């Protein structure tokens, strides 16, 4: 039955037949796939030898996220020493079964290795960009969606960023991370992921919304927003969740439910799961749901029994309502498969409302100055260049860099490069030429070879 429906769906003309045959699927993944969505679980290598666990995992899901194995402390335990052993096990578990793999996470204030926790300032900025570049490059082509930045906003009513060592490197750390991720893996969807952003009226939700809107306006490469959706009495599901999902989607990004768990039990819990699924199904760009664990006893909040299976593997009431809701989705009218187009690089539409606050002191005099910070690895580098206006505003700028012999520029963002070797000139693009007195704008480029020893010269217009 499942096979028949799937192959019928693959042929556009047969959709009506499949539909009227009412092909209710019997697993979460297959049910979600009817409308082109995935249904995933966070998994951990420590449980891949547990038969009850893997039986459910392999039967029900078609996407995975590493619960901890691809976090910064796992993948770069010592600076510039990368360990992908456990991440690979999870990625390969999914890819070998034809599933989607979500990458979690490249830049986060939490679960940093000790060496990074101790870092601040430009050393940390470079280390963070190096991490993003190296990890995203390693997994290039394998990750459906990356949580590039996780949990960067403050809880409560401030509407601001969370204080962290990363935030203290400058407000532009988030966009810098996204640009490095795009350069490293151009095919992956790049997501911003957070919690307490589910309720449309909450200040934190609104603050993230404004950031995504700003990124889209300025052409910062962002493709999706992840809603962790850890629901409990302190952060309860609200019926405006659908408004949240559709409002973000209207900005031109995909939305994904990335870490779903709902504390509770019985019919109440089942009903909330149903509502969450229906909200996702109502938003065309909500392209997948991931629950944060397989069984209640696998959950990071196991006391709240927030998942879909009991420890013995039995399906809970919440499982049934989730499956039923997924089966109620309107099948995709076209060929099943990836629902949304691959990442595009949106052109900036309007200039940013403000320039980021200066993070380096303005140079004396008029004109401009530039500084470069380099993330070098064996065979390549990412250079981040900050352009700072002097005592007067400037309307255009150009930075000339001496690319060392043997090195070559392969990819530039937020500037227009002339040439790729030798003396390369990087001119502003339409939306970042104007820099107010003492303010800073940033561009970057990726290169092959060694970028060390470059010194920028800035000319203002
Ligand atoms: C949690 C894991 O589930 C735990 O095993 C770990 O001890 C702490 O992190 N938001 C996130 C996830 O983005 O990475 C967190 O995962 C849960 C909250």
Helical residue percent band: 25-40%
Low-confidence stretches: 1-21, 334-364
DSSP summary, beta strand count: 17
Radius of gyration: 23 Å
**Terminal residue distance:** 68 Å
Question: How would a crystallographer describe the biggest sheet?
Answer: 8 strands, parallel, barrel
Helix/strand/pairing class, anyone? alpha/beta
What characteristic shape results from the CA principal axes?
elongated
Considering the chains and any ligands shown, give keywords for the structure:
single chain, 461 residues, alpha/beta, eight-stranded parallel barrel, 13 helices, elongated, disordered N terminus, binds (3S,4R)-3-hydroxy-2-oxopiperidin-4-yl beta-D-xylopyranoside
Textual characterization of the structure:
- This protein has helices at residues 2-10, 15-20, 28-33, 51-60, 72-75, 85-95, 114-117, 121-138, 173-184, 203-218, 241-249, 266-281, 317-327; strands spanning 38-43, 63-66, 100-108, 145-150, 189-194, 224-227, 230-231, 254-262, 286-291, 368-377, 380-389, 397-403, 408-413, 416-418, 422-427, 440-448, 457-460.
- It is α/β, with parallel strands linked by helices and 461 residues long.
- The strands form 3 sheets. An 8-stranded parallel beta barrel has the order 1-2-3-4-5-6-8-9, surrounded by 5 helices.
- Helix 9 links the parallel strand 4 and strand 5.
- Helix 12 packs parallel to helix 13.
- The protein is elongated and about 70 Å long.
- (3S,4R)-3-hydroxy-2-oxopiperidin-4-yl beta-D-xylopyranoside binds next to loops.
């Amino acid at each position: 039955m499942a096979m028949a429906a799937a192959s019928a769906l693959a042929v556009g003309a047969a959709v009506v037949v499949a539909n009227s045959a009412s092909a209710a699927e019997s697993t979460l993944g297959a049910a979600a796939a009817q409308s082109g969505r995935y249904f995933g679980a966070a998994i951990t290598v420590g449980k891949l030898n547990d038969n009850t666990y893997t039986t459910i995992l392999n039967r029900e899901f078609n996407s995975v996220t590493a619960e901890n194995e691809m976090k910064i402390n796992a993948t770069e335990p010592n600076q510039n020493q990368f360990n992908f052993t456990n991440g690979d096990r999870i990625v390969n578990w999914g890819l070998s079964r034809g599933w989607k793999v979500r990458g979690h996470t490249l830049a986060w204030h939490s679960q940093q290795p000790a060496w990074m926790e101790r870092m601040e300032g430009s050393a940390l900025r470079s280390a963070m960009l190096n991490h993003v570049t190296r990890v995203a490059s390693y997994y290039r082509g394998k990750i459906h969606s990356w949580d590039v930045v996780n949990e960067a906003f403050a809880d409560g009513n401030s509407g601001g960023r969370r204080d962290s060592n990363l935030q203290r490197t400058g407000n532009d750390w988030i966009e810098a991370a996204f640009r490095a991720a795009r350069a490293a893996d151009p095919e992956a969807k790049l997501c911003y992921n957070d919690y307490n952003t589910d309720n449309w009226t909450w200040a934190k939700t609104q603050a993230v919304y404004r950031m995504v809107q700003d990124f889209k306006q300025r052409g910062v490469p962002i493709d999706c927003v992840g809603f962790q959706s850890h629901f409990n009495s302190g952060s309860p599901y609200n019926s405006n969740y659908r408004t949240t999902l559709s409002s973000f989607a209207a900005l031109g990004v995909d939305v994904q439910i990335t870490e779903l768990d709902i504390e509770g039990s019985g019919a109440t819990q089942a009903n909330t799961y149903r509502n969450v699924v229906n909200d996702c199904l109502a938003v065309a760009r909500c392209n997948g749901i991931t629950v944060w664990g397989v069984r209640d006893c696998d959950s990071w909040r196991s006391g709240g029994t927030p998942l879909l299976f009991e420890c013995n593997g039995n399906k809970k009431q919440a499982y049934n309502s989730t499956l039923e809701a997924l089966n109620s989705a309107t099948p995709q009218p076209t060929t099943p498969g990836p629902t949304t187009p691959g990442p595009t690089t949106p052109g900036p539409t309007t200039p940013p409302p403000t320039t980021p606050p200066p993070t380096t002191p303005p140079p004396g005099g008029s004109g401009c100055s530039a500084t470069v910070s380099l993330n070098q690895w064996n065979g390549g580098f990412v250079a981040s260049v900050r352009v700072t206006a002097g005592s007067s505003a400037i309307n255009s700028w150009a930075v000339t860099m001496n690319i060392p012999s043997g090195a070559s520029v392969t990819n530039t963002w937020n500037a227009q490069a002339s040439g790729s070797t030798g003396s390369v000139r990087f001119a502003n693009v339409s939306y970042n030429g104007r820099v107010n007195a003492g303010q800073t704008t940033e561009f970057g480029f990726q290169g092959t070879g060694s970028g060390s020893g470059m010194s920028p010269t800035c000319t203002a217009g």
